[in-house]
Amino acid sequence: MAQQQQISLPAKLINGGIAGMVGVTCVFPIDLAKTRLQNQRSGQQLYKNMMDCLIKTVRSEGYFGMYRGAAVNLTLVTPEKAIKLAANDFFRHQLSKDSGKLTVFKEMLAGCCAGMCQVIITTPMEMLKIQLQDAGRLAAQQRVMPSVVATLKMGGTSAVLSRAYNTSPAPQVMRVSATEITRELLRTKGVTGLYRGLGATLMRDIPFSVVYFPLFAHLHQLGQHSSEDPSVPFYWSFMSGCAAGSIAAVAVSPCDVVKTRLQSLKKGANEETYNGVVDCVRNILRKEGPGAFLKGASCRALVIAPLFGIAQVVYSVGVGEFLLGYTPHNIYSA
User: Fold this and answer.
1) Average pLDDT score over the chain
2) Does residue 198 carry a pLDDT above 90?
3) Cβ proximity of 197 and 184 under 8 Å
4) Helix, strand, or coil here: 175?
5) Angle at 42 between CA 34 and CA 144, to 5 degrees
6) Multiple choice CATH, 9-40+48-137+175-324, 1.50.40.10, 3.30.530.20, 2.60.40.2970, 3.30.200.20
7) For residue 272, which of 283, 282, 257, 256 has the smallest C-alpha distance?
8) Spatial contact of 94 and 192, defined as CB atoms under 8 Å apart
9) Cα 191 to Cα 146: distance, rounded to the nearest angstrom
10) How far apart are CA 203 and CA 277, in angstroms?
11) Whole-number Cα distances in Å, 56 to 37, 51, 142, 171
12) What are the start-end ranges of the H helices in the chain?
């Protein structure tokens, strides 16, 4: 049984890192649209939907505007995906040692552990990415409402964190890098500044992993040629990753909205700040209604589905095993 085979953690980490880089490169513009749609409030809607957001982004910021924040995401997604995918394999392997078989509960437990491990990287990565992705929305809001001065509602606002947006009637977007934001957060808030929204990130990533990994495993198993030949065609791995990813993404979309709101340091005009998860949920319900928790849900599904589909295919290719000389390199299992 494959479940009883000895796994190589370094090889799995390499596979996960490569899978993350390939996947993120393909779907990052949709992720940017998701962040901007989630952050806009009722009555201040600059974008009607995902396509409208992407078109306006290209018009105002150019083609590469769709990749704002991609550098930090590509830098940190390597360890993030490596930890997530490798940890799930590791915990599944450990939990199946006794009986050689995984129950659904044990599969969910392995996913839960993987989700807890990944937030070490996910939280600061999302924190920095959101600031860079949302910059264009705030600048566009100032252009649409030139008489309104954007309010930066972060305690101890600094020159670096406040200069990204010019509050004059004709705003010029000043480029601010992830490195500058990181330095300023560490100086003013300490390490905890990078982990703002940790509770909401856990609330999103643990349920996601609990839903995604068991669902993917069962869908993937349906593609096996036979009980004697457990190999699965690469296209089936892709479809299984897409299906499981989109279902899990929509299921935890409300948590993703809360996380995005909490991690946005800069606020546009009349955009409130929140004192934790409970306060954020209460205010969104009161001011925007339950529908606000599904903002960007379709974008998130479109991001996560191909991201995990691509990631699972790349992960199963076995580049890590090949590089470390553990197994023969075979791209296609079909």
Assistant:
1) 78
2) no
3) no
4) coil
5) 85
6) 1.50.40.10
7) 283
8) no
9) 36
10) 10
11) 12, 9, 14, 16
12) 9-39, 50-61, 70-95, 104-133, 135-144, 159-162, 178-188, 191-194, 198-221, 234-251, 253-263, 277-288, 297-317, 319-324
Nearest to 117 by CA among 87, 75, 81, 78: 87
Residue recorded with tokens 């989700």: 115
Please tell me the predicted confidence (pLDDT) of residue 307. 83
Reported as a pLDDT band with limits 50, 70 and 90, residue 64 is: confident
Higher pLDDT, 176 or 90: 90
The DSSP result for 298-320, as a single string, is HHHHHHHHHHHHHHHHHHHHTHH
Residue 199: what residue type? G
Taking the model in full, what pTM does it have?
Answer: 0.71
Q: Where are the domains of the chain?
A: 9-40+48-137+175-324
- 138 within 8 A of 41, measured Cβ to Cβ: no
Stretch 174-186: mean pLDDT: 76
* Closest-CA residue to 66 (of 116, 133, 1): 133
Q: Which amino acid is at 264?
A: S
| 290 secondary structure, DSSP code | G
CA 63 to chain centre: 21
Residues 89-102 have pLDDT tens digits of 889 988 888 777 78
CB-side neighbour CA atoms (13 Å) of 204: 24
Tell me which of 145 and 334 has the higher pLDDT: 145
Identity at 15, one-letter amino acid code: N
Which are the contacts of 68, defined by CB distance < 8 A and separation ≥ 6? 32, 61, 132, 133, 135, 136
Asked if 205 and 118 touch (Cβ cutoff 8 Å), the reply is yes
Residues written for the chain = 334
Which position has the higher pLDDT, 149 or 47?
A: 47
Q: How far apart are alpha carbons 227 and 246 in whole angstroms?
A: 28
- Which tokens sit at 25? 């490169």
